[in-house]
Amino acid sequence: MRLLVAALASELQAFPEELPGFDRLVTGPGKLKAAYGLTRALDATAYEEIIVVGTAGGVDPALPGGVYEITAAIQHDVQDLDGVIGQHVSLPPRVATGRDGLVIATGDSFVDDVAVVERIRGLGGVLVDMETYAYVWVADQFDVPIRVLRAISDTAQDGATTVWDETVAACSVQLREQIRDEYGV
Fold first, then answer.
1. For residue range 24-77, what is the model confidence (pLDDT) as tens digits?
2. How close are the terminal C-alpha atoms of the chain, in Å?
3. What is the dihedral sign for C-alpha 57, 59, 60, 61?
4. CA distance 66 to 63
């Protein structure tokens, strides 16, 4: 059995309620809710794989819209005791999925600011979201393989919150097609 995970139900709106071979989990937005929800699910049931789907802001203007596999996640909203942005005092600076793809920067706020986008680019992030780092870290703690598929919903700059509300349905359709193509369900 696999676990299909999203932060928000709206990101799964194009998916049927029941998907053969998959349990479904909606954690809520942000790193804490993501970590808590996934930890509870993995503590209750053994899964062969976790597949995370959802939206992400694009911070590379050359990157076209679409669905992207994530190879690693960093945190853009933490700093260590020396003030180094992206370094947590006790967590690794980068967590990896073991798959080829893009680097996503995770933080607990919706990014719609040019200055924050520049900081994320400086850290090596190509996409931005609010959960991936937590999902990958928790999966690693339970030694469960994880895939993260993110559909670009906006450019993470001024007005991104309005654009996200308008594009989440289209992103969900793209993610549903990707799962259908790759898993046959």
1. 999 999 999 999 999 999 999 999 999 999 999 889 888 998 999 999 999 998
2. 13
3. positive
4. 9
Q: What is the DSSP letter of 102?
A: E
pTM above 0.90, yes or no: yes
| 159-165 CB contacts, 8 Å cutoff, 24+ apart | 159/112, 160/57, 160/110, 160/111, 160/112, 161/110, 161/112, 164/55, 164/57, 164/110
Q: Which amino acid is at 176?
A: R
Tell me: the pLDDT tens digits for 73-98? 999 988 888 888 888 888 999 999 99
Alpha helices (H) in the chain, listed in sequence order: 31-44, 114-123, 132-141, 160-183
Q: Residue 28: left (phi > 0), alpha (psi -120 to 50), or beta?
A: left
Distant-in-sequence, close-in-space partners of 91: CB < 8 Å, separation ≥ 6: 75, 78, 137
The string over 12-29, giving b where at least 16 C-beta atoms fall within 10 Å of a residue's C-beta and e elsewhere, is bebbeeebeebebbbbeb
CA distance 37 to 27: 5
Judging by DSSP bridges, how do beta strands 127-129 and 102-106 pair with one another? parallel
Tell me how far apart the alpha carbons of residues 131 and 7 are, in angstroms, rounded to a whole number: 7
